[in-house]
Design goal:
five-stranded parallel beta sheet; Rossmann fold; alpha/beta; globular
Length: 204
């Protein structure tokens, strides 16, 4: 049984990391379901991929330029994720909600922007969950899902980019004293979820 939250309990903030195939989206969804079921607090979910897709769908000039970048698998310039994160927090955050973030801190400026925002919003004690998965297992999982852009070469390129660009952000956050939980993403979904809840002190 997981601890029951109330509005009198300090809210939780979690930033998720993980390579493609590690099950990050699934674990984010499961954590949010648990928080909704056992907490009276609202949840602010900052899903950068979805925010960028929303921008593209709006059909603006900014959306058109965004599509030219993300449509070919490139990383957005850091100003855009910083802007979208800031806008979401400034518009929604009252200081009381849980914050679950996914797809952020993919470059040095983004990472500093996120960390500075958490200090500003009085959430410097946020948790970082990094789902770990070997390259071979990532390739195996991604090939199995059968998407047309999931060729082995394309997958290897994305994983190489993740290691080169994203992993250093974890080291930067560690240098700022942030709490990083490295969770093995190889086991089944339930086991990974249990390990995340244990790391976040949300287990029974």
């Amino acid at each position: 049984m997981i601890n029951t939250f109330s509005n009198g309990v300090h809210p939780i903030t979690v930033l998720f990391f993980g390579p493609q195939g590690a099950g990050k989206g699934t674990q984010v969804k499961l954590l949010m379901e648990i928080l909704k079921a056992r907490s009276e607090r609202g949840i602010i979910h900052i899903d950068m991929g979805q925010l960028l897709r929303n921008m593209i769908a709006a059909g603006s000039y900014t959306g058109k330029l965004t599509n030219e970048i993300v449509g070919v698998g490139k990383r957005m310039p850091d100003f855009m994720p910083i802007y979208l994160t800031t806008e979401a927090l400034a518009r929604q955050f009252t200081g009381e909600e849980h914050i679950i973030a996914d797809g952020l801190a993919r470059g040095p400026d983004q990472t500093r922007g996120w960390d500075d925002a958490m200090v500003f919003y009085k959430r410097p004690d946020f948790h970082i969950v990094s789902l770990e998965l070997s390259e071979s297992e990532s390739i195996k999982r991604l090939v199995k899902r059968g998407r047309s852009d999931d060729t082995e070469d394309a997958i290897k390129q994305r994983l190489s980019w993740h290691k080169a660009e994203v992993e250093p952000q974890l080291e930067f956050l560690k240098s700022r004293g942030r709490t990083i939980h490295r969770i093995d993403g190889a086991p089944d979904v339930e086991t990974v979820q249990k390990n995340i809840l244990t790391a976040l002190n949300l287990q029974g």
